[in-house]
Write a structure and sequence with these properties.
The protein folds into 3 domains: 3-131, Sandwich (Immunoglobulin-like), CATH 2.60.40.10; 136-245, Immunoglobulin-like (Sandwich), CATH 2.60.40; 256-288. Helices cover 15% and strands 45% of the residues. It is built from 2 helices and 23 strands. The protein has a 5-stranded mixed β-sheet, with no helix packed on it. Strands 14-13-23-22-17 form a 5-stranded mixed β-sheet, with no helix packed on it. A 4-stranded mixed β-sheet has the order 1-4-9-8, with no helix packed on it. A hairpin with a 2-residue loop joins strand 6 and strand 7. The longest helix is centred in the C-terminal third of the chain and has 40 residues, at 248-287.
Length: 288
Amino acid sequence: MRRSILLAGAFAIGAVVLAAGPASADDLVELSSGASATLPAEADAVVLLPLTPAPGVAVTGLTARVVRVVRDGRPVPAETMQAIGVRIEPAVPALRFDVRVDDLKRVGDYTATVAVGDGGRSELVDVVFKRPGADLQATAAIEVKRTVWFPEWGIGGTREELPELHVGAGPDTRITELLVTGLDSSADQVVVTGPAMPVTGPAALTLPYRITGTPPLGTVTRTVQLDSAQLARPLTVQFRVTTRRDPALIVVFALLGLFAGVSVRRILVAVQDRAAAAGRATELAARL
């Protein structure tokens, strides 16, 4: 399992930026309540937030627990709050956050309120974890070609040229779900099957799809939406479905026309022969 370790404060590395402020007389540790960290795409992340204990406070006697988590100002469910764990790391010393990034499914800022205590006193510290919107690209337009006989009458089959639908994830993307929805109310739909999850970037997916119903002759446009809680905004893919009669029908109709012409000619010749024979018989009878 991939795990990313982020260090902050005096040991800042990478994308985590923290501001340390002076401790008051009542503080147990010197720590900024406005600390923040941008979470990576990995399934698990470790964030180390360095702290300085107040005079007379032993790091080994400190405890820490998450008492509240809100996302964009709203409390999250209990199972989401459990995705952020915290404990004291005496060796640094630091607050160590173990974050299950996959469980923070929605894009936004998660503010974790941590209670730091030494058995007698307690201090609340706010840390903001930023869950950025995923970077996802998809083929914007797909040209689908269909050749049919008479599907509306159940005659003949259908041949389809279905170009591949590619979805690409950026290097800092981890998608744990992808919802695929057709936006058209018509019975003639383009049905796209979602991929197995999770998908970690950089990755390229090929999504299978099929045409349902009997789109009319000509060109129609069908729109499919790809969405996920990890995406900053949904993506739409347009399918231009062009349906035409199978060219083989021209050959079939030509052969049928030729057969019909030959048959009619033979019938006319036979009728004429019979008429001529009847005329000769009548003439012969008259002579007798």
